[in-house]
Design goal:
Elements: E1 4-11, H1 17-30, E2 36-43, E3 49-51, E4 54-56, H2 58-61, E5 67-70, H3 81-89, H4 98-105, H5 107-116, E6 124-127, H6 133-143, E7 148-152, E8 162-164, H7 167-179, E9 185-189, E10 194-204, E11 207-211, E12 215-218, E13 237-239, H8 246-262, E14 268-276, E15 279-286, H9 296-303, H10 308-319
Parallel strand pairs: 1-2, 1-5
Antiparallel strand pairs: 2-3, 3-4, 6-9, 7-8, 7-9, 10-11, 10-12, 10-14, 12-13, 14-15
Length: about 350
């Protein structure tokens, strides 16, 4: 056994179970073996924990672990639930704490935080229950250009997101999300522009909130946007650094720092934006970005010469060390990304 024992959590009872398996496997494979011993902890679709293939309880699976890296995505992984469990058991872990995870995962809460922080956000309407669909859709048709973006308020990886226009299609899209178990639906004006993402890593290279290069996302033309269907297939092109002016890149980095701090996130995050002639519109923040071969954060790390093993070692160090540096970061925001 070498050095620190790291539990890698993957799987989970979410719609992103399969992607989580890949992220967890990539984390486990890239933790430097001369420094760390990996405990691969699997959580099945029903929420049962497994240690070395044997069903067990979370406290037993974690009793020999020094710290945890989370390869989970979606519900239970990114919404603060597993973080509450780890906090209750006193297990150090990398990434946002339970409260910040909930705030970032809840798209309405995160958009309101972004707006309060001075970022541009698309106009939106929130529908809380099936009984409110008709009145909500009528208002949406009156006030928004069509088509609009319909998304579940607390799912990740663009699962359940659609772009539809007109009363009947918008109504049907919202109704289907409620039937699939969504606990609220957000309908946004559609912003057309360049899709980009901006990563933040705390205390990297001497900076409180180190901003990684902006990644430009080019989904296949027929996909229409960076949907769940094309996120992990290799069909989408990513260009790092993005083909944008330096002034725009600096503005996006400042906004990524600002929302990281505004949501109270610690250690690392990745925020998504759409760049238009009117400015950069904030979409959402990922507190547990994917770590697969197709994922965006490892590509932006590679662009500045940070290897994946070194990044994971850095996360372990953060998890075992002091609280977030976010509170010390100046809240300077540039909502104008024009050049």
């Amino acid at each position: 056994m070498h050095g620190t024992v790291i539990g890698v959590l993957r799987g989970g009872p979410s719609r992103e179970h399969d992607v989580s398996l890949k992220t967890g496997a990539a984390i486990a494979a890239n933790l430097p073996p001369e420094r760390f011993t990996v405990r691969d902890i699997y959580i099945d679709r029903n929420g049962t924990w497994h240690d070395r293939g044997v069903p067990t309880t979370p406290d037993r699976a974690l009793r020999m672990v020094d710290a945890v890296l989370l390869g989970l995505h979606g519900e239970y992984g990114e919404d603060g639930e597993v973080q509450k469990l780890l906090e209750r058991l006193g297990i150090p872990y990398a990434g946002a704490d339970s409260f910040a995870s909930f705030r970032a995962m809840h798209k309405l809460v995160s958009k309101e935080a972004a707006r309060d922080a001075g970022l541009l956000v698309p106009e939106y309407r929130y529908i809380t229950a099936k009984d409110d669909i008709d009145a909500g859709v009528r208002e949406i048709i009156r006030t928004f250009h069509q088509p609009v973006v319909v998304k579940p308020v607390r799912w990740g990886s663009s699962v359940g997101v659609s772009i539809v226009g007109g009363y009947a299609p918008v109504y049907a899209a919202i109704e289907e999300l409620f039937e699939q178990g969504a606990d609220g639906v957000l309908v946004e004006e559609r912003i057309v522009g360049m899709e980009v993402t901006a990563g933040i890593v705390e205390r990297l290279r001497g900076e409180a909130l180190y901003a990684l290069p902006i990644v430009e996302i080019l989904p296949p033309r027929d996909a229409g946007f960076f949907s769940a269907a094309v996120k992990y297939t290799g069909e989408t092109r990513e260009i790092c650094p993005a083909r944008i002016p330096q002034r725009t890149a600096r503005a996006l980095m400042a906004n990524a720092r600002a929302i990281h701090a505004a949501l109270g996130i610690r250690h690392y995050s990745r925020s998504d934006f759409i760049v238009t002639p009117q400015g950069a519109y904030y979409l959402e923040t990922n507190t547990l970005p994917g770590m697969t071969e197709e994922s965006l954060l490892p590509k932006s790390l590679m662009a500045v010469g940070v290897s994946f093993p070194d990044f994971l070692s850095h996360l372990v160090a953060l998890s075992l060390d002091a609280p977030s540096a976010s509170e010390n970061e100046p809240k300077q925001v540039f909502s104008d990304a024009k050049d």
